[in-house]
Design brief:
Radius of gyration: 22 Å
Strand order of the largest sheet: 1-2
Distance between the termini: 52 Å
Largest sheet: 2 strands, antiparallel
Number of helices: 21
Keywords: Membrane, Transmembrane, Transmembrane helix
Shape: globular
InterPro entries: Ryanodine_IP3_receptor
Oligomer: single chain
Helix content: 55-70%
C-alpha cells in the first residue's frame, strides 16, 4: 500500500482509494470506535490490533481530504480513547495536516478535550502527551501558511489557566534549572522518560503558541530564560533531537520577537557565534542553534547595534574567540 519518498511513507493513491471504497475503511472505523474506549490487559492482542488499525487509518487518510473529512466527524468519539492513545493522537495530527479548512471547523469543546488529555497526568500511560503533537499541528496545519490565530489564542489561554496545576514541576524555577540534568539522563525508568517527554512536548507546544502571537512570546520569556536555553542548546551531552524543541522555542520566542531582539545578551551571543562562521559555510554545516537562522537573518544579526553599555561591559570581560557555548558557563 505504501512507497517511500524522501524517507517518508507515502500511500499509493490507487490502493489507498481501494481501501477506502471497498469497505476496509468503514470496518476499521467501526472497530476502533467500539474498542478503543475500553481498557485491555497487556497480555491480550487488543492493544496491538488497535494500534495497527489506527496506523492503517493514518495511511488511508494521508493526503486525502475526503477521508480526512470522514474521520473528522468522529473526533468527539476518538477523544474518548483509552487504548491506542498515541496512535489516535498521530491520526488526528494526520487529519489536521495541510487541511486548514477542517482545522478552522474544530470546536472549542473538542480542542479543550484534546488539551486536557495532553496536560493531565496519567500515571499508567504517558502516551497522552502525544496529543500535544496534534494540538501543534491544529494551530499550524501547513508550514507554508500562518498559524490559525484564533486557535493559538484559545489554546494558550487554556495553558495559562492550567499550568500551575499541570506543569509546575516543569516550569518552576527548580524544574527549569534541572532541565539540563534531566535531558542528559539516560535512565529507562518510566518516570524519567515521562518527565523528559513532558518537557520536550511542552517546549515545542509553547513555541508553536508563540508564532506571530506577541502576548504568548512575552509570557513564554518568563518560563525559559535565554540563559537556560543556551545552556541546553549548546550542551554536547544532550541528544540533538532533545535540543530541537528548544531551538524552535529560541526562534519563535526570542529571535522572532522585536522586543527581545533588542536584548543585549541575545545580540552579543548571536554576533559572537555568527562571527565564527566562514563565508563559504552552508546551512547544513551550521551548529544546531543556528539552523533557525537563514542567510538573510544571519546578515541582519551582523548589523545589529552594539552600542549598548551592557554589551560593551561584558565584552571587556570576555576573551577573544569564545563561542556561544562559553558565554553562559
Amino acid at each position: 500500500m505504501v512507497k517511500k519518498d524522501n524517507m517518508n511513507i507515502v500511500p499509493r493513491r490507487r490502493i489507498q482509494m481501494l481501501a477506502y471504497t471497498s469497505g476496509i475503511f468503514s470496518a476499521l472505523m467501526v472497530y476502533v470506535l467500539k474498542f478503543s474506549q475500553g481498557v485491555y490487559h497487556a497480555n491480550t492482542n487488543q492493544p496491538q490490533l488497535l494500534n495497527r488499525a489506527f496506523k492503517f487509518l493514518q495511511l488511508i487518510c494521508r493526503g486525502n481530504k475526503m477521508v480526512k473529512a470522514k474521520i473528522f466527524v468522529s473526533i468527539p468519539q476518538l477523544l474518548k480513547v483509552r487504548t491506542g492513545v498515541a496512535a489516535v493522537a498521530h491520526l488526528l495530527a494526520e487529519v489536521f495536516e495541510k487541511n486548514r479548512e477542517l482545522c478552522l471547523r474544530m470546536s472549542n469543546n473538542d480542542i479543550e478535550c484534546m488539551y486536557t488529555l495532553a496536560s493531565t497526568y496519567h500515571s499508567d500511560n504517558s502516551e497522552y502527551l502525544d496529543f500535544f503533537i496534534a494540538i501543534t499541528v491544529l494551530m499550524k496545519p501547513d508550514t507554508a501558511e500562518p498559524s490559525i490565530f484564533i486557535h493559538q489564542k484559545f489554546i494558550f489561554q487554556l495553558f495559562l489557566d492550567s499550568y500551575h496545576d499541570c506543569f509546575s514541576d516543569v516550569l518552576s524555577s527548580e524544574g527549569i534549572s534541572n532541565a539540563v540534568n534531566l535531558l542528559k539522563e539516560s535512565s529507562q525508568k518510566d518516570e524519567v522518560i515521562y518527565a523528559q517527554n513532558k518537557l520536550l512536548h511542552l517546549t515545542e507546544f509553547l513555541a508553536a503558541c508563540s508564532e506571530r502571537y506577541q502576548f504568548a512570546k512575552d509570557k513564554c520569556c518568563e518560563f525559559f530564560s535565554l540563559h537556560h536555553l543556551i545552556n541546553i542548546i549548546t550542551n554536547n551531552e544532550i541528544a540533538k533531537n532533545f535540543q530541537k524543541p528548544f531551538v524552535y522555542f529560541l526562534e519563535q520566542v526570542y529571535l522572532r520577537n522585536k522586543r527581545q531582539l533588542k536584548h543585549s545578551l541575545l545580540i552579543m551571543s548571536l554576533k559572537q557565534v555568527v562571527s565564527q562562521l566562514q563565508d563559504n559555510e552552508t546551512s547544513e554545516s551550521r551548529p544546531l542553534y543556528l539552523l533557525c537562522l537563514d542567510d538573510e537573518q544571519l546578515e541582519e544579526v551582523k548589523e545589529l547595534p552594539e552600542d549598548d553599555e551592557e554589551i560593551q561591559e561584558m565584552k571587556k570581560k570576555m576573551k577573544t574567540g569564545k563561542i556561544l557555548s562559553l558565554i553562559f558557563l
